[in-house]
Amino acid sequence: xxxxxxxxxxxxxxxxxxxxxxxxxxxxxxxxxxxxxxxxxxxxxxxxxxxxxxxxxxxxxxxxxxxxxxxxxxxxxxxxxxxxxxxxxxxxxxxxxxxxxxxxxxxxxxxxxxxxxxxxxxxxxxxxxxxxxxxxxxxxxxxxxxxxxxxxxxxxxxxxxxxxxxxxxxxxxxxxxxxxxxxxxxxxxxxxxxxxxxxxxxxxxxxxxxxxxxxxxxxxxxxxxxxxxxxxxxxxxxxxxxxxxxxxxxxxxxxxxxxxxxxxxxxxxxxxxxxx
Length: 276
Prior knowledge:
Blueprint (H helix, E strand, L loop, with lengths): L1 H34 L20 E10 L4 H6 L7 E4 L6 H10 L3 E8 L20 H13 L4 E8 L7 H13 L3 E4 L8 H8 L3 E3 L2 E2 L6 H18 L1 E7 L2 H17 L1 E3 L2 H7 L1
Parallel strand pairs: 1-2, 1-8, 1-9, 2-3, 3-4, 4-5, 5-6, 7-8
């Protein structure tokens, strides 16, 4: 009898060892696929994944440009093809758009849309609202677009209320499609209707994955870049949004150099959308 009990215990230990070996082998296989930059169909949860030629494609949008011409000089220090989103009707909106375009960087219109709450001060009718008549919405959109030359697409500045409103976004999407633009949803509300509406309207579309600098703190920004890289590895691509601020420019330059050196591909938003 003791021999049988020892034999049973030995068999149980062997079973546990075999299970652990299988689990460890599975982990090694997954890590190897990621490090070898291999795309396995169905491995990523997103339905559309660009062809893998790197650890992942990353698009970075710099919001809120147009206030200062210093942004032009700072952009010139970035060799990576970041996307520059320019607020309309500011003192340097056109100059920054021309500067970014001349440097080979993609330009977007950073369109001011109505939020649920707003503590900032803007000129009258600067923000497109859900209560504006359609004719005024179209006029404000066209005027904003004209003030940002070379724009390939649009993303929303604020807009938590606007991007929940089907009527307003339908009207804006119609204008974007007429002008051969894409829309990048900054995702400032969980209730956004933009993904399904863009799909219905066959409008080129993408959405933000990570806000990189909601806090003006180096450790926080670096952590957000780590999240961006992890998202790109997991899904094949990632889109991050940051802002034209002194500390952000500094960290952005460092992170772009880091990401390209370890195997990420920095791409403009439009080329990423075209690859999806």
